[in-house]
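Sharing a chain and its predicted structure for anyone who wants a worked example. Both blocks are below, sequence first, tokens second.
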Amino acid sequence: MDKNENKFNEVISRDNASIHDIVLSNEKQYICDICQEAFTVESGMIKHRDTIHNEQKNYECDKCENKFEFRSHLSRHQISMHKSHKDFACDNCEKKFVKKSSLITHQKLVHKDREDYSCKKCERKFENKSNLLKHNKIFHEVLKNYLCEMCAKRFGNKQSLFVHIKTVHEGLKDFVCNKCVEKFEQKSYLLIHLKTVHDGRKNVASNVFKDNICDDCGKKFKNESGLLRHISRVHEGRKDYACDYCEKKFGSKSDLLRHQRTVHEYRRDFACDRCERKFGRKSDLLKHHLTIHEGRKDYECDKCQKKFAQNSHLLFHLKTVHEGRKDYTCDKCEKKFGSQGNLIQHQKIFHENRRDFACDKCEKKFGYKWLLLLHQKTVHEGRKDYPCDKCEQKFGRKSSLFLHKRAVHEGKDFICDKCEKKFGRKHHLLDHQKTVHEGRRDYVCDKCEIKFGLKSTLLIHQKTVHDGRKDYTCNQCEKKFGVQSNLRKHQKIVHEGRKEFECDKCELKCGNSSDFSKHQRTVHEGRKDFICNNCERKFGRKGNLIKHQKTVHEGRKDYACDVCEKKFGDQTNLKKHQQKIHKGRNDYANVNCEKK
């Protein structure tokens, strides 16, 4: 008998010696009479039968038809899932919670104005002795003696280790559904599948985890310790395990090992049997099956009827779209994000200029993995999976098809009564009328006194002109841009050669819908909707009107040649001057150029 078993025997009393013998010998004497699953102790079998097979659920939610065995469970469900407002605010950081218990948990984990009980092994602190003891029992007591050599995960008994190796690493699924031939690694999963998919009872799986729900992301856990670990690692930022390849940090060792296995070793052990796509995690494969092949989106937003495949995605949508919460601000460009992960990704790509995903066919690099996959699909495979049902034109991106339909085929319901220009949204019409026809420039730059019709335009002007900031760099030619949309437009048109909007009258191709609409309006319809209020000259584009007013009526020449100091009213004429007089160079003076 080794030291671990000696330690185990010291904890267990003589009265429980028989149970101890059963656990060590892996005998499972208690068998569920419904599904024949075996358990080592009677309490485990009873809990299994009550949660999986119990159908006496008399308390039904009037909003989602979930059923519960106890009234208290129904109340907890309604508070956590359907209550839209959060009444419990933290007096330290003003973060709000739906449940008081979640507030208390947050204060205990985050704010340290309390007596601390520190763990001597990992220096983690707790608010009371019982939680410290629970932590030691879960994380540091050597009661999990069976180590998986493939992923370093530990188990309390040999049977659990065997099940883990068989299902996770070998991918064996011994339980087959006789209705749809789908396979499962455990009989309980097969039973849940039968009840939820074929019997239509969608509340069975959720009720197994209904007692421990994370307020921030809606993820569900079997026990409180799992919920607390999740909050600490995911939402409160504890990440003690760093990857020695890329220095990325993780909240648990298993997450670190999974990251190294899937990202740096690029292992994809879980293959889809329908489309041959491979995944690094089994959970990602299951999500792929549900959302792509079964097309299931079971979570519907009660405010806009948009549907989601996962509850966490619905909660994130509610928080960021309908509540307008974006709690994470970039300290470099002040852009706000709904999650910390999106903020980190933004900073990595746009401010650190990191491109970690390289194409193995052309060595082009991307900041996002989905952009790499999209690039490979559309450029190297030539796939255009999104055809327009009105003109048979095909697109490689769903977003491009949407923009094409909106620009070419769909009507715009908001029409300007002065120039008949159409808009898809009412606030765009109001902005147009205010700035173009009323000539209002309510936002004045305090540095150069230039006036703008929109506050957003003023902020962009100040950032790019006066602060000289060009935070967005092209990874192909290193050209810099002050606005992210201009960078994307540049990459799409210049480097990808994408001009997806083709005029059916003159075959001109445009890179974006706005240029396409301007072309049709000014060239083929002959419209000149922008009138100068000084000389009544008409223009087809607003930019040309502004340029005319600035150079002709105000006499402004803001663009100076840095070689000969000659000034011009617009940048185009400056470039023409430099190309013609200085032969495209601006590092020496030309004697033929007269200073003005």
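Comments welcome. The CA atoms of residues 1 and 210 lie 40 Å apart.
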